[in-house]
User: What shape does this take?
Amino acid sequence: MTAEKLKIGLDVDGVLADVIHTWLDYNNKIRGTISKEEISEWNFWERYQIDKYDFYKELSLCWQTWYKIPSTEVNLSTTTSALSDIAEVDIVTAREESTHIYVKSWLSSQKITYKNYVGVLEGLEKTKLDYDIFIDDSPINAKSMLDDGKSVILYTQPWNLKFEDPRAKRIFQLKDAIPLIKTLIQET
Assistant: This one.
């Protein structure tokens, strides 16, 4: 496998965009207060008696004000540019169709470098896509991808701290993915 052929599927929510921050602002005005650190599992909404579909609908509403959504970290533009220098990087995101325009506006405003934008309706659909490496924050997606023989770099968030699988490589900043990917390229 050469660097030109290496394909990376890069997630948005929780990896690039800290949309949970915006959702928490919304939630904390209409329900009891929740902090990001309290979101210790993927399906946290069950613990707080929040309907799953309400949660996802509210996330979609948050994207309508995309300009208020912070990035997960500083220098994402520089990091995605560096990733694109060593591999083909596509945005691979699971979301409601109506939010794609907002996400693309956010990516543009953040100067995120990528080749293609690929949207699916459900996170588990990502597993079926042809990528060598996925960078994602969902422990459910990660397990599915790993079980399908895909390489996964898990972007650390409070909701995936309990996920332990030696096949996944955990990162705390996106730039930490660069040496992992370079090593993978050298090994192939």
Q: What stands out?
A: The beta strands are 7-10, 88-94, 117-120, 133-136, 151-155, 169-171. The longest helix spans residues 52-64. The helical segments are 19-30, 52-64, 76-86, 100-109, 139-147, 177-187. The chain has six helices and six strands.
